[in-house]
Amino acid sequence: MAPVRPVPGAGGGVWPVVAAALVGVWAVGATVGGQTVTWLVEQVLLVSGLDQQDWLWPVTGVVTALVVGAPAGLLAALPRSPAVRAAGRAWLLGAIALGVLGLLRAVPPTLPEVYLAGLAGVAGLGALLIRRLGGPGPADRRSGDPAVPDPQRVPDRPERVRAEPAATGLAVAGGLALLLPWVWLGALGGVLETVCGLLASAAVGWLAATVLDGRFWAGYERPAASRSGVPAPERPVGGARLVLVGGLVAGVTLALFAGGIGQSGAQLAALLVLPPAGFAIAALRVTSRARSAAGADTPDAGLRPVGSAPVGWLVGIAAAGPLTLVDPEEVTLLLSGARDVPFWAAVAAAGSLAVAVLLGIGYGVGLGRRAAPRPRRPVAAAVAGVLLLATGAVYVGLGSPGWHGERLFVVLKEQADLTGVVAQTGPDGRQARGREVYRRLVETAERSQADLRRELDRLRLDYTPYYLVNAVEVDGGTAVRAWLSRRGDVDQVLVSQRLRPLPASGSPTRGDEPAPAVPSWNLRMIGADRVWSQLDVTGSGVVVGGSDSGVDGRHPALSAGFRGGDDSWYDPWNDSRSPADLGGHGTHTLATAVGDQQVGVAPGAQWVGCVNLDRNLGNPARYLDCLQFMLAPFPPGADPFTEGRPDRAPQVLTNSWGCPAIEGCALDTLQPATSALAAAGVFFVAAAGNTGSFCGSVDDPPAPYPDVFTVGAVDRQRQVTSFSSRGPTPGGVSKPDLVAPGDDVLSALPGGGYGRMSGTSMAAPHLAGVVALMWSANPALVGDLETTRRILLDTVSPAEPTNPSEPNTDTCGSERNIIGAGLVDAYEAVQAARHLG
């Protein structure tokens, strides 16, 4: 006897259907809402400079699982309708999966292999447990003669049916179609990360196939009844109802799965990719024409259901997009106004959404109709093959082929001993100090790294050695990290984030204002214009170094000040050979320090530049590349260990950047570098950060370091801005050291124009320019960091510690943790420097 199948909706009336609809809407709303709100909360924490809470995502997953699983569990147990119970069971399992998989987000995004391997393991184990422990499907057992088939009864276990090869081929084709936007717009990470991502995608597909199996679809596959009222299994199964209703219920289930996979941000893309695929999956449930009871094809012959393998193929391939082709760290960062990874991930997800809609319509119309022709295996295989070739062609021709995984930043325990370096001052004395510091740093690194380098060469691992911090940047994933961490000569192993390429580079910020006719308000506030006009000091004879997004070397405000030569520009990100700026931030900050055209504090000073930010992000190695260049500049392609020129080092450095944990830095990572620069007599200026007005927000290196001069920001009213970070530092040091104008500052931008920006990034170069003026006025001060610092702190003018919109702002223990010593005064500082003789 043919297997008995349910009549959906039988035995319960309309109310179970209404309840199921409400629970489905609630499940989608709770999932999408919970994931979106938590992501927004994380963005607010990030922008505010507050610590990321490791428990936030796991709690969100568990709470969502509870609020969705409770009503879904009732649907699975109470109604008599097999279709409603099938929906409840699938949604309950989906909610459990979301809660359990969401716990894995406690793994930091800097450990993608660990997260993806965990996702693969947990999803695979979940699929195995459901297969082993899952009981009978939705049933409505009635008393009566068991010999008489009941059209409203479901067998304990529905017929096990192998997947029709044609359906599997079409599922693979559908998954590849959903993947196409991702291979075009995304990029792969490292080899191990990619392998783990593919395993995780396959496990998620297997889990989806296990939940959306025959027990689920039995509730929506309706046979046509004979004249006697007994179901005739040879009649059409499913049809439009299967595609529409079954696809909708499957889509809700996939939404729950999507909410639990991927790091913060990636799951939002998955929520657009997976749920719409439910309709295409439903259409693939019916793909082949069955024989009639007489054994011959008849016009009435129906379509028989196929196994659940197509679900796994389609979902597994589609999930590979957000899991393998998106950087798990960058996708967590929403950079204001930037077309960065979150933007392109959203574009790829929107493309997959459009493809999923077309698939649902195409497969539904082509396969779900009553008189649909039987799809042939060769045709399905050909379609899958064409899509596979198209995916490969898009990846190679339009995408970003290759491996773009993270590297490891290995800090050794031994750091150079710089005690006893004679604190000589003046231009010649500072150069002598620089040479001695450079010699000691290189000698220590060469000796202490020798054994590690031999091992890396033996293992054929690519690496880059550093000396300013005794460290090595190494290619490698989790296994290499574990090996390095066990070495006795290694202090710590950090992730040195490598940015994955984007399909299109963003354009730099350009200004739409003309050059100012008179010095702007910020220069007048600190008295820089009076230094030029009354003291005849412009910064000549001093070189300022800027490490940032780059510099537009052809800008009228900066072109005349470039020092020139083969050792005045370095770009470790893009290998540009002449000053250029792909962002705009670096041009704006350096011009504030040394720019002409009424925008720079020290327009007579020269400058050198280095690119340590790409797309406003960096990593420990790129920051160190530039700091090494500033200690001992070198020609393009030269070895910094042997061809550095400490005599050519700039005397003052302006640094409007910070290295937070998400970029790979620990609090003390760059401390040896700033200490070495101080020992060499280089004055290091750093922005305090833009994570105020919270106390203790000066916490991203290098701003908290005691040998760095840290600058906060004030507005036109001399009041500390709300965004200016405040102390004390994690080590208890009072920061910032002082404040400078940082709100609505007019300066140069790439392309020859001018524009206004706000931030402590704009405040720091004011201080660097003032030091250039002081050392130009009295060259004997060059390299005398202690005296220069004392003059700066003793000659400040008043500043207001609170922002007018926040009259009750906490004083953070002391006003010095908000305004430092006060507002820098260029005129008084230069006067004091002159009077030293």
Automatic annotation (TrEMBL):
It holds the Pfam family Peptidase_S8. The chain crosses the membrane at residues 12-35, 55-78, 90-108, 114-133, 166-185, 191-212, 242-262, 268-286, 306-323, 343-367, 379-398. Residues 136-161, 721-741 are annotated as: Disordered. Residues 435-462 form a coiled coil. Keywords: Coiled coil, Hydrolase, Membrane, Protease, Serine protease, Transmembrane, Transmembrane helix. Belongs to the peptidase S8 family. The keyword Zinc-finger does not apply. PANTHER family: CELL WALL-ASSOCIATED PROTEASE (PTHR43399:SF4), SUBTILISIN-RELATED (PTHR43399). Gene3D superfamilies: Peptidase S8/S53 domain. The active site is at 548 (charge relay system), 585 (charge relay system), 761 (charge relay system). InterPro entries: Peptidase_S8/S53_dom, Peptidase_S8/S53_dom_sf, Peptidase_S8/S53_subtilisin, Peptidase_S8_subtilisin-rel. Residues 539-798 form the Peptidase S8/S53 domain. This is Peptidase S8.
